């Protein structure tokens, strides 16, 4: 790596905000001999441009000796972040590669078939005459030979150990704050009818502890291996059989990894097993702090690493979570350049939104939202609902209060479509979202206000969360929630001249700020210090609808009476 050229590799024609100083600090950290640099850069600091400059410091093929690796990877957990990179003209030399299911086969009669179900994976010894033109294999070949290959973190981890995407000189991970949690998710093993076609023939026991879970995993691995051999014996497979073969192969690898890691006395990974329902019930095997998994899928993939995020809140805790020695890691802090008065926090708390208090609190939250709608009659808003159960209740309450014509929502199947329709709409609609606290860019009039209706604490019914709390890891619990809050607050203010208000409806959020104060970045602490109660209008649904067109109200009335029409967004 050659950190000295980091400024020359910056892709924009000029710097903005603190970018020039950030690059100088990153360069100095690498030149001090640090192999890993954490870059804590807030929303709007241009993390992708910083990432490109860092990646550009990697050795090139012409600079490397035969035994040395060269070039760089750029990876991010967020698909939407990768999409943004692919569309950014300043980042055109990042060569994007995606998974096979994102590409269509080009053979006659197969043009609607994704590459992961094409004849080359369905038919034994199939000789594809157009493989050199296949969109997936073409993109893969190009990316493997380009200076900077860009991919999602899922694809990056899945290609660990491959000949095509081997070790490189520099690895840049954008939005890296959840790296440990993403690794835990990827390494989690689901054993159920959805993942094992022959589940009904397994005689699933009531697992009592990890030793029994390991024996059960070993038995499933043997049965799975026999089924895969049967499928491989067929000259041609159906698309469903291809999907079964691939999922079973993945399962075999996961089960083998689990057994090997559990039996390794030097492994730092702690495994937990969930089986709600006892005998015959599905089983979930989950890792905690999967250092060994990350070593194979991430840390063995490069010489130097840059991890960028707005919310790496505690350096030492983050390093421990992902298997790094804090002494070998540098932290570069990038200051916020957005005026604090442009990103106000408002206290409209109505009580606790915990499960036992929700039925009492949520109607009050809905009334507060109606009042906020009246304060922003001509501006789009967003509600972070935390769960689909809260979203559904809130949607019903807002409709009962008479503001339904201004409300939109989504379900698990139409997240992207509903979000895009809301962003395109000219009406000042309120969007009820679930799990959209990250990787959502709502600059300018796309959204001027938002509501956090529940403190996003991890689910204590999750065995990993429960285990950590049993071990007294309350700091982790509060940091995880604070990280999500900070990410959410960044959705509506995206530039120094942008502005957007965030309303806090759950009193547990104020308590969270007190408990996690020591882990707050200074720029967010400045927002919290200015927390104030807003001057909201009285509860007046008519005022909340003042900016909605009469036509939109009529369309809403029809959709409420006859069900949501698939062309409703076309009408809008």
TrEMBL record:
Keywords (A to Z) from UniProt: ATP-binding, DNA-binding, Helicase, Hydrolase, Nucleotide-binding
InterPro entries: ATP-dep_Helicase_C (IPR006555), DinG/Rad3-like (IPR045028), P-loop_NTPase (IPR027417), RAD3-like_helicase_DEAD (IPR010614)
SUPFAM superfamilies: P-loop containing nucleoside triphosphate hydrolases (SSF52540)
Start and end residues of each ATP-dependent helicase C-terminal domain: 388-511
Matching Pfam families: DEAD_2, Helicase_C_2
Entry keyword Nucleotide-binding: yes
Organism superkingdom: Archaea
Location of region: Disordered: 538-572
Sample GO molecular function, one term: helicase activity
Keyword Isomerase applies: no
Name of the protein in question: ATP-dependent DNA helicase
